[in-house]
């Protein structure tokens, strides 16, 4: 990561391909305002918008990397509706695994998350494992851990930065992992307080990333 802070925009199930490109156009027009020397910008659109985003980013040489919000636990084969790691690798460098909404609404298990991590790692994708507390299982092969307390996801009630630091420290002691992100009601007003917390290497941003102007403010 070259000591850069990671800023991950997770758009969840929002935006058409056209809307995604419009977001990128606004970001491009405001790029001059952002100091990118210490930042890595990663955008995670829906699968349907990946191709359009990839093309726009490449054509305009934007300093943005792409990620997927989820990945299949299967490889190629008769798995209707699934997108596997080989297909995702065509467009992205990062993959979110085990987001709290995936666990809650789609009943993802620790075993599912282990298998997704293994497949992603084998093909060379960088894995971001989402955990809800200090006891959440973290696959040994995972690279980046995103702490996202369920009480803070989409509620407007972020975790206290000191609590984040304590929990991340406990996870580090238990697992040896050393790249941590915070996610949960992050906005331009509280972002810096989390970035200043010990061992926090970046932010996983949901709602505040949907509007490009709001997201840009968060980066300033």
Which secondary structure elements does this structure contain, and how are they paired or packed?
Blueprint: E1 5-10, H1 17-29, E2 39-44, H2 50-59, E3 64-68, H3 85-88, E4 94-97, H4 100-106, H5 110-123, E5 126-131, E6 144-147, H6 161-175, E7 180-183, H7 191-195, E8 200-205, H8 212-219
Parallel strand pairs: 1-2, 1-8, 2-3, 3-4, 4-5, 5-6, 6-7, 7-8
Helix pairs in contact: 1-2
If you had to describe this structure to a student in words, what would you say it looks like?
The chain has 220 residues and is an alpha/beta fold. The protein has one domain: TIM Barrel (Alpha-Beta Barrel). 35% of the residues lie in helices and 19% in strands. The chain is built from 8 helices and 8 strands. Helix 7 links the parallel strand 7 and strand 8. The protein is globular and about 45 Å long.
**Overall pLDDT, averaged?**
95
Discrete helix count: 8
Q: Which CATH architecture is right?
A: Alpha-Beta Barrel
Strand content: 15-25%
Structural class: alpha/beta
Sum up the overall morphology in one term. Answer: globular
């Amino acid at each position: 990561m070259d000591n850069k802070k990671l800023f991950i925009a997770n758009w969840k199930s929002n935006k058409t391909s056209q809307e995604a490109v419009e977001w990128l156009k606004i970001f491009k027009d405001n790029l001059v305002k952002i100091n990118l020397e210490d930042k890595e910008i990663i955008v995670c659109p829906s699968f349907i918008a990946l191709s359009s985003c990839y093309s726009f980013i490449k054509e305009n040489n934007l300093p943005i990397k792409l990620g997927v919000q989820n990945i299949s636990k299967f490889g190629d084969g008769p798995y209707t509706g699934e997108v596997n790691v080989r297909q995702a690798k065509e467009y992205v460098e990062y993959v979110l695994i085990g987001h709290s909404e995936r666990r809650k609404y789609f009943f993802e298990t620790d075993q599912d998350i282990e298998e997704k991590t293994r497949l992603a790692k084998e093909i060379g994708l960088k894995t971001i494992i989402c955990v809800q507390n200090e006891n959440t299982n973290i696959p040994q092969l995972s690279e980046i851990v995103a702490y996202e307390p369920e009480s803070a996801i989409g509620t407007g009630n972020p975790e206290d930065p000191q609590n984040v630091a304590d929990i991340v420290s406990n996870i580090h002691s238990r697992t040896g992992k050393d790249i941590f992100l915070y996610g949960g009601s992050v906005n331009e007003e509280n972002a810096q307080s989390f970035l200043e917390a010990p061992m926090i290497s970046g932010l996983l941003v949901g709602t505040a990333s949907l509007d490009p102007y709001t997201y840009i403010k968060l980066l300033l």
